[in-house]
Amino acid sequence: VAKAVLEYLCLTNLKDANIIFTQLVNESTFLKTSSLMGFIKFLLLVVEKERDAFQLFQFLRDSYPTSLKRDPTLNQYLDVIGKIYFGVDPPGSGGLGNILSSLMKSLLDGE
Predict the structure, then answer these.
(1) How many angstroms separate the CA atoms of 9 and 29, rounded?
(2) Displacement of CA 89 from its chain's centroid (Å)
């Protein structure tokens, strides 16, 4: 669920990201109590605020380190989302080209 929502956000499709999240979380008691789903819920709210909410976006990332460490690609998606919605390059990057290209390649290859 988390990856699907993040992929939709990377494709700038906030509407479908919200639909998928709502439908899948409402069908599962386990997902409703998952800390990662809590993160995704708040992320969707922050992204809706767009450029005015970068500090909230960063605070949210800093508040859920355990959930985000489950899968290394989650932070890669979040780096792309930070660039798309808030205009901020990831720390220590010379640009977002490599991350975007590797994410797009994995999306297209179905990995």
Answers:
(1) 24
(2) 15
On the question of pLDDT at 22 being above 70, the answer is yes
Asked if 82 contacts 54 with a C-beta cutoff of 8 angstroms, the reply is: yes
Arithmetic mean of pLDDT, 32-51: 87
> Which residue's entry shows tokens 């930070």?
82
DSSP symbols for 55-90:
HHHHHHHHH-HHHHTT-HHHHHHHHHHHHHHH--PP
Rounded Cα distance, 62 and 66, in Å: 10
Specify the pLDDT at position 75.
93
Whole-prediction pTM: 0.76
Dist CA 16 CA 70 (whole Å): 24
Instruction: Tell me which long-range contacts 98-104 makes (C-beta under 8 A, separation of at least 24).
Output: 102/76, 103/10, 103/73, 103/76, 103/77
